Amino acid sequence: KQWYQRRVRGSWLEGFNLKELFLKHFLIITEIFAVIIAIVWPLPGSKLSHPTISLVIVAIIFLFTGFKLRTDELRSGVKSLDVVLVCCISSLFITSLVPSYIVHTLPFDDRVKGVNDTSFSFGPLELKLGISLFYCAPATIATGIVMVTGAEGDVVTAVAVSTITNLVGCFTTPLLFSLFADADTMAQDSLKILMKLGLSLLLPMTIGKLLTVVIPKSKAVIAEHKRKIGMLQSLGICIILWIKLSSSIKKGTFKLIVATDMVILVGILIACHFLVLLLNFLISISCCFKREQASVILILCSQKTIVLTAAIATALPENIGDSALILLPCFIAHPLQMLIDSFFIQPLQTSNLFPAFLPEFCERCREVKHDPQSHRRLFDTGQSPN
Fold it and tell me: What's the mean pLDDT in 349-359?
């Protein structure tokens, strides 16, 4: 340790904390390791490819999710109920349906089942289903709130939106996804899917939340070990990725993806996220949100959680498609959205993302809201008509 400190003193490595970097990007690093292990040695993961094992892992993940749910802030969020409502509608429906519908119209082929009836294709059909599944999910629980805090946004509203959307999203995500998946298959297995989701999502999450309510000291323990709980969640998600990917490689279905499919997939995911950002930007302008509130809808409501998508993918019937290929866009889109949104944190602190006239105009809109007689001053610039 002393030798290392002497070597880095005065160099660019001074102040570089490798441990902190690893903990900060734990999910992305473990995802890379999961993919490498699955490619190099797929046998162990394929042996663990059993629905019961996946459901148990998902149940543990959502037990930790129940620990982290902060329902105390919901009372404070009621003070800005209109903002919370708009953010929830955007996260659960607008940013779910619009990109999913656009992707649904793109040409994808069913090469996994040996069907390739299109001259031009963006890739296997499972990739399209994966994109739709990811964007039908609600907002992130932890990452989005941290980024809103960095942008000096309304953290209380962000926590309320995150909690509500993740509770409601357990019901809306599979329903919205069924609009873009094979309707007949989803209808036949809808009862089984709902039972699996109830046992692996809602029940563990409820138990986790009840434990924090029944045991008073548990909140302090959870707050102290918050990062470790998040790391365990990330590890569980990556184990699911490792198992599904190993099984897909063992069956040979993963070999059907070529390099051009991956390039197109990344391009579609980037375009979809910028579309979601644009939608939320327009909503924030039309609703005349303040800077702090606009940060919530721009960052938090533009991000989608990987936890729920991984859980639903494990509950899907096998005849709907290869689950590893469905999960692939989700695991690419999740770090991609964080990377893109990180560039907006600094501008959001100073409102540089908004036109110069907007703050004054929105203030006049609020005056009209409280004083209808002031509508004459709405477009008054203080200058003569000439």
Answer: 60
